[in-house]
Write a structure and sequence with these properties.
Elements (H helix, E strand, L loop, with lengths): L23 H25 L8 H13 L10 H30 L8 H33 L6 H36 L5 H39 L29 H8 L5 H8 L7 E5 L7 H14 L7 E6 L8 H10 L4 E6 L6 H7 L1 H20 L8 E7 L1 H7 L5 H7 L2 E5 L6 H8 L18 E4 L17 E5 L5 H4 L10 H4 L16 H9 L15 H12 L6 H10 L6
Helix pairs in contact: 2-3, 2-4, 3-5, 3-18, 5-6, 9-12, 10-19, 12-13, 19-20
GO molecular function: hydrolase activity
Pfam families: Abhydrolase_9, Abhydrolase_9_N
Protein name: Alpha/beta hydrolase
């Protein structure tokens, strides 16, 4: 491999005066031997005292290229610290790729590593200053434009200045971690070489190091982090949000006569049943006599297992008269048990209060974290809850059944999908479905999107000419295809072009998705391009901040629920002005 310029060796102390004896030749020989010994010791000492932090020229070029490319825009606006994190990770990946590329090239060229000249390092330094400065400036320009598209006004000049320093620290830490693994590999190979051949020792050594590293990251670090987060959020789950009180209505779980105790609902369950529009508020909007909506819920403390928890929630729904309403909604929560108030409030307003909603909690973790680690729990919760509700609903006389709807946002849409096998199942067993911000790994979402009609873009696909399933980023401006009939059950997906939850996938690291190669959505810059590794880390970094942007962008869908439910439920008597007024009513805080 390419070596760094040699570091000057430090001189070794004298071993003392030469011994006296007969013959100058002996003394001369002794002096020469001592000088040679000192030279050898000096070289050894210099090698030991070699600078700990040294880099290779090809790796530095790779780091520079990927660091500059990391400033290209992604889906959401990025602050300086976050940009520094992405830049540091990209630079570390680029450094590794540069070192590997140089090693492969030398192998094919059959030549040894050469020490780079001072001129080579000087060229790198000049290019680094010019290219990084240009990339940094363009990055700030692109971020300014993204903030303008989304109406984001927050900006920190201090964080922007800190970006290069954060990147340098992240790059250094990752580089040291990589070199630590390399030293571990060499140690393992030397140890194994005592019992097996050198080639086998190197291969087994790599396998052991990779296995240990993966175990530490996935088991100890990730597992420990998830366990700590679970403990922390389980304590938070015992609290009640400010302004929320135990319901005095028998139509709510946790209220009088409820089969689910108030204390077992969890924080988000208490927020769900202890809030929402009243009959008077709904009537004030519809100008008709309205009913008090039914809301049933079961928290993690309500029952030990998912199946029993689902049965308890549905039993409380039935007790409260939920199956006697005109409209029944089964919604799968996100992470900590949160249900977007805008989704349920819109459903209740447009249903004039003649509605019932049932949901249940399956995790303590917040949405973004449960999105990464609680997928199996969401799948089980969505299937068990719908099956429990459908079991009761299907046994009712046909003329007494309420219209059965399904909804879910983010991981809730993933859980909601698992109760169905496909388009026909959704159409035959529901009156309508509304999913918002579906994760890219949703089974049905991927099936509908991957098999979309030819010519339709991935950000707004058309499936089977839109006969049952349709997609839109803003239902207020229209749902494609507008020239096709949409009869019977309607299944609608809401997804913003700038929502990283919808577009994030591990495949981003090595393959370009269609949604980047096609024309971008209205809130995504045309300058966004796909780059190996870089785009993956950019979109990954967008995930925790997907709800920190104004409504209508990223992972916020409050106003879209009004027009989305209006399209799916098809209520009568509401004008465009009524819908516009309702958009101003629904908009409580998000998870």
């Amino acid at each position: 491999m390419t070596q760094d310029p040699p570091v000057a060796a430090s001189s070794s102390p004298s071993d003392g005066p030469p011994p006296t004896g007969a013959g100058g030749g002996t003394a001369g020989a002794t002096d020469q031997t001592g000088a040679a010994g000192r030279t050898r010791r000096g070289r050894g000492s210099g090698k030991k005292r070699r600078l700990r932090f040294h880099v290779m020229l090809p790796g530095c070029w790779g780091a520079l290229v990927l660091a500059c490319l990391s400033f290209t825009p992604s889906l959401l606006p990025r602050g300086g610290v976050l940009q520094g994190l992405i830049c540091g990770i990209s630079a570390a990946i680029g450094y590794g790729l540069g070192v590997v590329a140089a090693f492969v090239w030398r192998a094919f060229a059959d030549r040894d590593a050469r020490t780079p000249s001072r001129r080579s390092w000087l060229v790198l330094l000049v290019c680094a200053v010019v290219l990084f400065g240009l990339a940094f400036g363009l990055g700030q320009y692109w971020q300014h434009r993204i903030r303008g598209l989304m109406g984001v006004t927050d900006y920190s000049a201090l964080a922007t200045v800190a970006c290069p320093f954060v990147a340098a620290v992240v790059f250094y830490l990752l580089l040291m971690a990589g070199r630590g693994l390399r030293r571990l590999y060499h140690g393992a190979a030397r140890l194994l070489g005592r019992w097996i051949g050198p080639r086998a020792a190197r291969v087994v050594g790599w396998v052991l190091v990779v296995g240990v590293a993966w175990s530490v990251v996935s088991g100890l670090l990730l597992g420990g982090f998830v366990n700590a987060a679970n403990e922390a959020f389980s304590v938070r789950d015992t609290q009640t949000p400010e302004g929320v009180h135990q319901p005095t209505s028998a139509l709510r779980s946790g209220g009088p006569g409820s089969l689910v105790p108030w204390d077992s609902l969890g924080r988000q369950g208490r927020a769900f049943t202890g809030s929402g529009p009243t009959a008077q508020q709904i009537g004030g909007f519809t100008h008709r006599a309205a009913q008090e909506p039914v809301r049933a819920y079961a928290g993690l403390s309500t029952a030990e297992d998912t199946e029993t928890r689902a049965e308890r929630a549905v039993a409380d729904l039935r007790r409260a008269g939920g199956f006697e309403r005109e409209n029944l909604l089964v919604t799968t929560t996100t992470g900590s048990g949160w249900v977007d108030p805008a989704a349920v409030d819109s459903f209740e307003y447009l249903g004039n209060g003649d509605t019932a909603t049932v949901a249940m909690q399956y995790s303590y973790l917040p949405s973004w974290l449960s999105y990464l680690v609680d997928q199996s729990k969401a799948r089980e919760a969505g299937r068990e809850l719908f099956d429990a509700a459908y079991d009761v609903w299907s046994k009712l006389p046909q003329d007494e059944r309420p219209r059965l709807f399904v909804a879910g946002e983010s991981l809730g849409s993933f859980g909601g999908e698992t109760a169905f096998s496909g388009e026909y199942d959704l159409r035959n067993r529901t009156a309508g479905t509304l999913f918002a911000g579906p994760p890219n790994f949703n089974t049905l979402f991927r099936e509908f999107s991957d098999h979309r009609d030819a010519g339709s873009p991935e950000i707004e696909p058309v499936y089977k000419e839109g006969r049952t399933v349709r997609f839109t980023e803003d239902p207020a401006t229209g749902i494609t295809p507008a020239d096709r009939a949409w009869d019977g059950t309607r299944v609608l997906y809401l997804m913003h072009p700038s929502d990283p939850i919808v577009w994030w996938s591990p495949a981003l690291a090595l393959s370009e998705p269609n949604w980047i190669g096609e024309a971008p959505g209205g809130d995504v810059l045309e300058e966004m391009v796909w780059m190996p590794f870089v785009t993956f880390w950019q979109v990954t970094a967008d995930l925790p901040f997907s709800t920190g942007v104004p409504d209508g962008h990223g992972h916020t869908y409050k106003a879209a629920y009004v027009d989305g439910w209006n399209a799916v439920m098809r209520p009568e008597g509401f004008t465009a002005q009524d819908l516009d007024r309702l958009r101003g009513i629904v908009g409580p805080p998000q998870d």
